Amino acid sequence: MPETVRLAAIAARALPLVDLTDLGDTCTPAAVDALVDRASTPFGPVAAVCLWPRFVARARARLDAASPIKIATVVNFPDGGTDRAAVVAETEAALRDGADEIDLVLPYRALMAGDVAAAEAMIAAVRALFPPPPVRLKVILETGRLADPALIRQAADLAIAAGADFIKTSTGKVDVNATPEAAEI
Predict the structure, then answer these.
(1) What is the DSSP string of 21-55?
(2) Is residue 143 classed as helix, strand or coil in its secondary structure?
(3) pLDDT at 162
(4) CB–CB of 127/91 below 8 Å?
(5) What are the tens digits of pLDDT across the range 47-66?
(6) Residue among 158, 129, 124 at smallest CA distance from 141
(7) Can you tell me the distance from the alpha carbon of 17 to that of 15, in angstroms, rounded to the nearest whole number?
(8) How are strands ordered across the β-sheet holding 136-140?
(9) pLDDT tens, 59-112?
């Protein structure tokens, strides 16, 4: 098999698993347009574009209605605070603007302090906003901050029990992000 054919096959297999992301502090409308434009490739589309909530409507308007590319956004990001009302409002706006996936940062500091109820309540409040599938809730655990394997396990179990469709290890905004050990847990 020629190398170009092999690489094209690898790209076609990998792209539907990728979220093309711009969560940089300097993200602009022009950067969002470029991100959305790059999401469709000659080898197939990526799974989703992931961007700040303020850009969801812009991405939705830029994508063709028949596009298989999902729009993902983040809430409670990156700090993972406990202001449920603010996170609910942010989520409602993102869903109204056309988000297909919500990546919620678990209130990990509350969990670390033993306030399991705050973490459960945050996930439940966001989950209650969702229309029927295919909208997905992904919960970011921030495993680099949780650090302790038992706490990571508790966070993962809690997120799944509270209605997460998918769990993620990290925001990518802290010193220690995704690690093989955290992913294994």
Answers:
(1) EE--TT--HHHHHHHHHHTEETTEE-SEEEE-GGG
(2) helix
(3) 94
(4) no
(5) 999 999 999 999 999 998 89
(6) 158
(7) 5
(8) 19-22, 48-51, 70-75, 101-105, 136-140, 166-168
(9) 999 998 899 999 999 999 999 999 999 999 999 999 999 999 999 999 999 999
Spatial separation of the C-alpha atoms in residues 185 and 182, rounded to whole Å: 5
d(CA 135, CA 44): 22
| Identity of the residue numbered 55 | F
Q: What is the mean pLDDT of the chain?
A: 95
Q: Which two tokens stand for residue 125?
A: 């409040």
Q: Name the nearest CA neighbour of 140 among 115, 122, 125.
A: 122
Q: Tell me, what's the pLDDT at 60?
A: 97
Residue 133 banded pLDDT, cuts 50, 70, 90: confident
The string of pLDDT tens digits covering residues 142-174 is 999 999 999 999 999 999 999 999 999 999 999
CA distance 179 to 182: 5
Are 138 and 162 spatial neighbours (Cβ–Cβ below 8 Å)?
no
Residue position matching structure tokens 């993962």: 156
